[in-house]
Structure to design on (184 residues):
């Protein structure tokens, strides 16, 4: 299957290359969920950045990495930012986790015909962000109401999310340009 993603062009289409990329994606998601960076107005972790990046870089393999990450965390491995386990499904913040899964498949589908330009990459990541936050806020609304969910879990984080979307887009775009330059 030719899906025009950078990872396929760099690492090839062999089974073990794909296997290792998915494992690398799960490791990156786990590490990024534990690291917090001070940012205005609140600190942020890099987990959504990793979702944007691996979904754009690896395509369906990024989706598989997010899926396996969610399965491992749900089965009890403490890989989520606040632990893990089956009871995590019933926590207020779990909507953002399964929103990441939907974001990764959205980014994959929007970019599966190739990384054409900066705008296409950014808009694909933006739609992934929108879906992830829509699902997360809807899930959180059942616990604390829409106003609190929106005011406490969307507005304070929007600056950091736009920064992460822009950073992921720039990284993918420059890797794409570098790869095109090397192939010419």
């Amino acid at each position: 299957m030719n899906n025009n993603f950078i990872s396929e062009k760099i690492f090839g289409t062999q089974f073990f290359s794909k296997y290792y990329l998915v494992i690398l994606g799960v490791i990156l998601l786990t590490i990024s969920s534990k690291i917090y960076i001070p940012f205005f107005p609140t600190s942020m972790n890099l987990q959504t950045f990793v979702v944007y990046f691996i979904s754009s870089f690896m395509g369906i393999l990024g989706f598989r990495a997010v899926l396996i990450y969610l399965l491992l965390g749900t089965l009890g491995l403490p890989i989520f930012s606040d632990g893990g386990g089956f009871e995590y499904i019933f926590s207020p913040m779990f909507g953002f986790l399964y929103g990441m899964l939907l974001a990764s498949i959205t980014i994959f589908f929007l970019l599966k015909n190739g990384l054409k330009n900066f705008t296409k990459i950014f808009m694909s990541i933006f739609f992934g962000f929108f879906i992830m936050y829509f699902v997360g806020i809807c899930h959180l609304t059942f616990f604390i109401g829409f106003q609190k969910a929106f005011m406490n879990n969307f507005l304070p984080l929007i600056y950091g999310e736009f920064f992460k979307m822009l950073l992921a887009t720039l990284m993918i775009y420059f890797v794409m340009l570098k790869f095109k330059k090397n192939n010419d």
